Amino acid sequence: xxxxxxxxxAVRFKITALPSMMGTCHCSRCRKVGASTFVVVRGADFTxxxxxxxxxxxxxxxxxxxxxxxxxxxxxxLGEILSDSExxxxxxxxxxGDPGVRNRFHEFVADKPDWYHIADxxxxxxxxxxxx
Length: 132
Fold this sequence. Notes:
This protein is mostly beta strands. Helix content is 4%, strand content 36%.
C-alpha cells in the first residue's frame, strides 16, 4: 500500500495494490498542469481518504481523454483521481511512498522542450505508445 496527498494535506488517498505502470508524458498539456510523470492505478485499488470537496477538475479539451484534478486549496496536480474508469493516471509526485514501479516509457517526446534531457533508459515514443 502507498498513500498520497496534496501539498497542504487536505486531499489524501491510498492505493492498496501496486500501480500497473509508470510513465512520463512530455506533451505541453501535461507539462503545464505539473503532472508529467504518472502511475496508472486500478479504480478498485484507489481510495480517497479526505478532501473530496477540495478537488477541482479541469475538463479536457476536444482530443484529450482525461480531466485533470487539482487541490483547490494548494493547487497540487493530482491526476484523474475522481475517475470512474477501471484504471486511471495519478500524478506520481503526489505519492508519499515508493509505488513499487519505475518509469517504463516517455510519450510525446516529439513535444519535449529542448531544455529537458531524458536521463533514463525507458522507451521513448513520439506520441502515445499504442499509436507510435
